[in-house]
Amino acid sequence: MNRIRWLAVIAAAGLGIFGLSFVDGWISHDRELLGEGYRRVHIVLNAWRSAAIPVLTLGAVAALATGIGALIAVRRPGIPGWLLMGGSVVTLAVIGATLVPNGQDGHASSVQLTPAWLTGVGIGLAAVMVAGAVAVVRPHRQAAVALCVVGAIGVVGGIGGRWLGLQVSAGTGAHWSDGSYTRPATADQEPETLTITSGSFEIADRWAGTWESSGWTVVLTDDPACPDSRGTYHAHGEGGTGVDLRFVKVVDTCHDGARAADLEDGIWARDP
């Protein structure tokens, strides 16, 4: 094919990747919530959601920029060829990094990320972009070696960025800190104070034990009132600043659900 047709192919592939980036089909996200037994939550992500950011998002943006650059190059041949080559290689590298499984294990939950069906489609389109850029630019050997190095750095950086991003995102979402929270009286419960201190918790004189967390999930163990029971909850931030807590039970059989009823009844307001 001639130069114009190759540029059109690059543009179509780049814009195609960007368009597909909004479709849920790039990353398979599996989370296991631990407790007495476990609950598995499975979702499929696009390039603009949670664990796909920022690495896969960068690939989509690079594909868009390269595709637009190819369209401009059709009218303005003076566009530097290395921009098309660099953009295509970066797109392929960071999307290719998604092929490597990624995971994070915590006390209360574990997360596993694996490629979904659109990852293969994206890599194929990115490879077409690279082939088209090579056909248009025809880089000499030294430039080709430099681009291979850039690609390798992009893959390694993408893998590392995905791992770091998952560790940070899975470790955030905690709306609490050491201190005390008070829940006013409700129709079923007396007013009580929850105290969290260095990995332990105490609620009045009724409940106490170990407090472990992963993201917004907390696990309660070693409670003398029910030493063999393990409670798993989601702790949601409430109030205008998100510092108050609302608990949603995943599983807790302590005293036939009495501890769960206590925690879930009302909002626990952060004490000044």
Q: Beta-sheet strand percentage?
A: 25-35%
Order of helices and strands: HEEHHEEHHEEEEEEEHE
Based on CA inertia axes, which overall geometry fits?
elongated
Number of helices: 6
Task: Give the total of domains.
Answer: 2
Q: Helix coverage percent of residues?
A: 40-55%
Overview features:
272 residues; alpha+beta; eight-stranded antiparallel sheet; four-stranded antiparallel sheet; 6 helices; 12 strands
Description:
- By secondary structure, the protein is of the alpha+beta class.
- The protein has two domains: 3-171, no CATH class; 179-270, no CATH class.
- It contains six helices and twelve strands.
- The strands form two sheets. An eight-stranded antiparallel β-sheet has the order 11-10-9-8-7-6-5-12, with helices on one face.
- A hairpin with a 3-residue loop joins β7 (200-203) and β8 (207-214).
- α1 packs antiparallel against α2 (55-75) and α1 packs antiparallel against α4.
- The radius of gyration is 25 Å and the shape is elongated.
- The model has no long low-confidence stretch (mean pLDDT 87).
List the helices and strands and how they pair.
Elements: H1 3-20, E1 27-35, E2 37-45, H2 55-75, H3 81-96, E3 102-105, E4 109-115, H4 117-137, H5 141-171, E5 179-183, E6 192-197, E7 200-203, E8 207-214, E9 217-221, E10 231-238, E11 244-251, H6 258-264, E12 269-270
Antiparallel strand pairs: 1-2, 1-4, 3-4, 5-6, 5-12, 6-7, 7-8, 8-9, 9-10, 10-11
Short structural summary:
This protein has helices spanning about 5-20, 55-75, 80-95, 115-135, 140-170, 260-265; strands at about 25-35, 35-45, 100-105, 110-115, 180-185, 190-195, 200-205, 205-215, 215-220, 230-240, 245-250, 270. It is an alpha+beta fold and about 270 residues long. The longest helix is centred in the middle third of the chain and has 31 residues, at about 140-170.
